[in-house]
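Figure S7 source data.
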Amino acid sequence: MIEIKNYINGKLQNPISGEWIDNYDPSCGEVYGKIPNSGKEDVEAAYIASAKAFPEWSNTNLETRSRILSKIADLIEEKLDSLAAAESKDNGKPISLAAKVDIPRASANFRFFAHAITQFAGESHESVGLNAINFTLRKPLGIVGCISPWNLPLYLFTWKIAPALAAGNCVVAKPSEVTPMTAYLLSEICMEAGLPPGVLNIVHGLGHATGQAIVEHPKIKAISFTGGTATGEHIARTAAPMFKKLSLELGGKNPNLIFADCDYGKMLDTTVRSSFANQGQICLCGSRIFVEESIYEKFKPDFVARVKALKVGHPSQKNSNLGALVSKPHLEKVLSYIEDAPNQDANILCGGNKVTVPGYEKGYYLEPTVIEVKTNQCKLNQEEIFGPVVTIMPFKTEEEALTMANDVRYGLSATIWTTNLDRTMRLSNHLEAGIIWVNTWLMRDLRTPFGGMKDSGVGREGGFEALRFFTEPKNVCIQYS
Ligand code: TXE
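Tokens for the predicted TXE complex:
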């Protein structure tokens, strides 16, 4: 039984209440550890530690701050194998994915912001004719809250923490209670890297208790949250009367627009990945596939054949393309959409069933599923399923494709497959999405703004956008004679 601890004031601590929550291994459906069921008192202790650490950390020179964050990046890199194994066991994702994407990216997050802060600058404006100069100071906010989800645990946790710390804030952070393990291992790494006590505090527990206590805390100045849209809405409502700064990265129902003039082979390879990477549990997955009519009847069997060839297996096996879904309730939620497909006038082309992996019969495995739909208005196309389920349907014209792509409450990302530059520009201008990929998917440059519009969220993360979020601009106007 692995016992996870809170990381408060530089020390690993048990929850004050002495209460614990079970932690499940999704690959076999068994409890393998316990995590603190933290309450308000633990969050308060974390806040007090942060507040004590803030004056010194916010005044630590950039070189020192940067060196400590780089050291954390180095240590994550050094421990890649053990972190990848822990992430895979906790989340159910294939170990190969954790080793190739999640953990390197967590290290890159720290390394990137360790450098970015040394390049970050306030603006200055000379008021010509008035003998005045304005300059903008960018001050850290103080104590900030970072709350992250279970789909890319260490990757998204560090995506928030690294810029917050780089900008000179102290942090009270909560990883998802469903996947707490690598956040716990990060506590140990921070201690090893010499991060001063209290600068980062990691409090484990349930959303409505620990998370809520962070959001409600009157002195925590900002909340950076990634998770479900309903939770984001609740957080926004709670935080608004306190005028907290909010960054919300929420759900997606991303369109994948495939035109006949695309590079077909590259499109097919990438579309399989953008549909089922991480068991489809990435907010950026292209879950609604729209295909130009002239290639639809070719695409359909080609895609289905490729999906049928994917191997669902134990996450530790190197040849598993898909591992287990993250939890039993989530598996049931995803299955409920599949079971409802016939009521939506939709046709399951492949998949749709639970998978039994020998030796791990109680694991949460599901076949990658392709469903042909008749209208974009069906539930399968309008609600975020967040699992290995994609829909396909044909379109006749670019206008029709654009209308269907935008006809959804979400606006996170969109992918366009075409070699026509004019079309690329027309669609990029009119698609309602914060991130648009053309002839690629999930290619990330950490300097770029990341986030969605409509119900996919508020604000942008990444690069200087994140450093702007985690700082308060203060304009100073000096008149001289
Ligand atoms: O996420 P929650 P859930 C979507 C996906 C999924 C749905 C629900 O569709 O099926 O959301 O997933 C914390 N105050 N995404 O329920 O609850 C919680 O403890 C403060 C998309 O697992 O939003 C966890 O740390 N915090 C998404 C974090 O919020 C609260 C990734 C996210 O959990 C809280 C995950 C509260 N009142 C799910 N309630 C994406 N955009 O990538 C919960 N939390």
